[in-house]
Amino acid sequence: MHDWRKADRGQDAAPTVVRSTWDYIHHLDAFRDWLRRTAAAAPLWNPADVLLGNLDKRYLLELAARGVPVVPTLLLERGRPTDLAALAAERGWEEVVIKPAVGAGSFETHRVAARSGEATAVCRRLLADRDVLMQPYLTAVDGYGERALVWIDGEFTHAVRKSPRFAVDAEQVSEALPISDAERAVGTAALAHIHDRLLYARVDVVPGPTAAPLVMELELVEPSLFLLQSPPALERFVAGIRRRLAG
User: Fold this and answer.
1) Max alpha carbon distance in the chain (Å)?
2) Domain-located, residue 9
3) I need a surface site. Which of 24, 45, 162, 171 has the fewest CB within 10 A?
4) Looking at the structure, do residues 147 and 241 belong to the same domain, yes or no?
5) CATH number of the CATH domain containing 109
6) pLDDT 10s per residue in the chain (247 long)?
7) Could you count the other beta carbons within 10 Å of the beta carbon of residue 123?
8) Quick one: 183 exposed, middle or buried, by C-beta within 10 A (0-12, 13-18, 19+)?
9) Are residues 150 and 108 in the same domain?
10) Same domain, 127 and 157
């Protein structure tokens, strides 16, 4: 596998599609530098500014500010004292999900009772060296599941159901599934400000308390696109790359 950390773009610089840089969360500054250098040498798909803006999940707060339905999210800042139980109680959250603001593959993602000692300990440990997000645990993921909406070169192609995944859990996904009108509308709203600049994207949604879909994550850097589940999506991905190379 090509190691982005050792990449050196020279005279043979070629367009780059970022696909499996899942360790970037442990080398964030180096990865940011690599994105900027790579984009300066040749086209980067998706564009560097889009990727840089998607590295930190505080983008969820920006989506919410634009009116996109998003899972309620609190940003807890590194090193600042936090009364987790009080924050959750104010919002009526009994169970919460705590995770780093910069993360991938469910790294350090925890489901905990908001007023438990475990929640306090996890939050204190993570806040020692990183910003953290806290969200209510939405029980719909236990049944309907989290739906990953795959978007390739101008349109949503398919979805998969993902089972809840925390910390070191293995990912479990379904076959390709249709996308409901409500899910498509929310996914379209999440991508509205950048859709014409993307080769690929994934919008992860889950039903909220009223059953309306909410955005859990917007994946623009290195998402699994579940192309094995949808051969037409793979064909569209290849065609999108070819079209860009020819253009």
Assistant:
1) 58
2) no
3) 171
4) yes
5) 3.30.1490.20
6) 346 565 555 556 789 999 888 889 999 999 999 999 999 999 999 999 999 999 999 999 999 999 999 999 999 999 888 888 899 999 999 999 999 999 887 788 999 999 999 988 999 999 999 999 999 999 998 889 899 999 999 999 999 998 776 655 667 899 999 999 999 999 999 999 999 999 999 999 999 999 999 999 999 999 999 999 999 999 999 999 999 999 8
7) 23
8) buried
9) no
10) no
pTM over the 0.70 mark: yes
User: What is residue 137's DSSP assignment?
Assistant: P
The two tokens of residue 123 are: 């939050």
Whether the CB-CB separation of 100 and 133 falls below 8 Å is answered with yes
Structure tokens of 172?
């479990």
Which residue from 230, 225, 171 is spatially nearest to 201, judged by alpha carbons? 225
Tell me the three-class secondary structure of 70-112, residue by residue.
ECCCEEECCCCCCCHHHHHHHHCCCEEEEEECCCCCCCCCEEE
